[in-house]
């Protein structure tokens, strides 16, 4: 099956102004044997630039979730998938979307002086930024709002720094980001809840107060504001940012394929219309540059990096671009075990854990891999939030508060474990020599 076979239907889809997903279904391909994996991998290789893959857990007992329109459903009968079992996860994507969006978005301004952000609903990009400014103004002694650049469309890239008033000199720093992929709304809401928990806990909760007096948190809830805004106003399932590409009608770069680590390798695409388009060059995008520039400036203090995604309920350890066993794998698994146990105890949610390539698939240009390899930060983790596929990216707002609790339980327990671990990883041999870069303005 060649790229040409899919080109005409692709061009029809991407030039269409309609954002309706009426009749689209999400199918789950079950991987019961290695033969199933081989066949599905072959199918993905042929179709990755044209189909919308929602989840890819490429191991025996795993599955692949893919959204297909009525016109694409015949692909399930191709030779590669003929003997692969499948089921329908979502019967009609548009119908589900209508049911959720009808009550899931916060739009009305509240009259209690707390702005228009509603923590139990999804909020658009502008409201999210306004709430960040409001929180910074309300907690000036322990916060600093930092701009790390602006997007192609001119939206600010904001990072909330939080640290106690009794902070230790040169205290270590922990980074958390959400919303790198635009359609993963739950990560933005969960990040904002995490900020709220830290701010309200300082001075009122002994544990959080002690932690913030020893550790600085830098949190970027909305790492891809242009893409997120587009997913609100135009295409709910939009994934990339909104940068122009070499193909006029194909916008956007997958920001989590744009970092300078095995750039352009497996799990990324050089095709501009692909959902996993890596961009024309590493760090071609304002958003990835902003993250990298900021983290490079604090690399000697960086204790941990946590990137929130969805979905699948997994805690992913390094690395994503290679199946090579990293030298500090055992401590990664200890941290992941500790964090996922805390999540289970405090929320009841079960999270699997392990190397990203073992639980999911190989990707290149991943932010966590770049931080691990170039900034020499051992503790870099990807957290795939819920659910397990019943709603996928279209989680009802009732899932927001539980997701916030998962993030708080997992990250706070992981940071505590890392900080108190007797294993010293600061001398880990660098994967690559750090390069000072001249970042674009």
Short account of what is shown:
The protein is of the alpha/beta class.
Cα separation of the termini? 42 Å
Strand content: 15-25%
- Report the mean per-residue pLDDT as an integer: 90
Major β-sheet profile: 8 strands, mixed
- Placed side by side, the strands forming the largest sheet appear as 5-6-8-7-9-12-10-11
Structural class: alpha/beta
Note the run of SSEs as H and E: HEHEEEHHEEEHHEHHEEHEHHEH
Helix content: 25-40%
Query: What oligomeric state best describes the polypeptide chains here?
Result: single chain
Radius of gyration of CA atoms, rounded to a whole number: 21 Å
Q: Count of helical segments?
A: 12
Question: What general outline do the C-alpha atoms trace?
Answer: globular
Unreliable segments (pLDDT under 50, ≥5 consecutive)?
1-18, 108-113, 426-432
Count all strands and give the number. Answer: 12
